From TrEMBL:
Homodimer. Keywords: Hydrolase, Metal-binding, Pyrimidine biosynthesis, Zinc. Zn(2+) 1 binds at residues 13, 15, 94, 241. NCBIfam families: pyrC_dimer. Residues 75-296 form the Amidohydrolase-related domain. The keyword Acetylation does not apply. This is Dihydroorotase. It comes from Jannaschia helgolandensis. The gene is pyrC.
Amino acid sequence: MNSLTIRRPDDWHLHLRDGDMLRAVAPESRHFGRAIIMPNLVPPVVTGAQAASYRDRVIAAGFARPLMTLYLTETTDPADVVQAHADGIITAVKLYPAGATTNSASGVSNFENVRDVLTAMEAAGVPLCLHGEVTDADIDIFDREARFLDRVLTPLRAAHPDLKLTLEHVTTSEAVDWVRAHPGVGATITVQHLMANRNDMLAGGMRPHFYCLPILKRGTHQTALRQAATSGEAQFFLGTDSAPHPTHAKESACCSAGCFTATHALPLLAHVFEEEDALDRLEGFVSLHGPAHYGLPVNDDTITLSKGSHLDFPARIEAYGQSVTLFDPGHPIHWHVVD
Ligand SMILES: NC(=O)N[C@@H](CC(=O)O)C(=O)O
Ligand SMILES: [Zn+2]
Ligand SMILES: [Zn+2]
């Protein structure tokens, strides 16, 4: 197959940042219809009013159909969350365990303190998206997602069985199994976790542009993720987690976590799905399963991917005096989006 026309995809997990960085990266997501916009700005987006104003800045920067989220803190007002959702300002609420990832200092430490807001969300049908890692210093970084499932997610699910959940950026076979065992729960998968494992990041030299959280795992987990993404199961869908950091912050003694994949996410995914002999399932993963999970219509229009010469993408994009380096899998890609 050398050409594939599919419903326009959406990105169910995207970091656009703010200010100059927002203006630089927003156009890179132009092939996507909608995107769930992550709220981990500095300071985070915590109120409905802040989400409305951030939405206006995202649209002004050139991304027309953002789906906004609120950053859950231990002082989040349940009434504000429910109102912002009822008003159509937000699509979901995002839970970051405090300290788990980039800009997560205001996240949740004591889950007792968010019981009321989770109860209100459950009653009002407001979805919760989760960064699924425990942060205890004694837990090995490669085990943080698996421990989150038994220590946090299983009890949370039992306490709030009707709360709509999306487990973001799943990286392990344990997470894939947990999701399959819990019908109705959605799970996003990133481009980098499908394309790479920890060997690609660490063997023969440390590659900072492969460093993100949750961290890349061993190859057996990558295989489980590729199987889930290409299986056609509607619980799994694309969230790129494209997360721009200035090149100097990535190529640093203490590298920031995040891979910038927005620009060429779709050609990279076509490559993965072709390798798995599953190109006919790409549309489900990128365009159909996400809207179904969130109860939204699929996009009206289509995009076409075609296979031909070597995809030529820049090493980095300019961002107002800084640059952002693109995720490069390190081998040629032959798929393109036909503009
Ligand atoms: N994935 C990452 O490694 N980084 C994200 C935060 C996140 O999604 O955890 C970021 O905001 O940079
Ligand atoms: Zn995250
Ligand atoms: Zn993210």
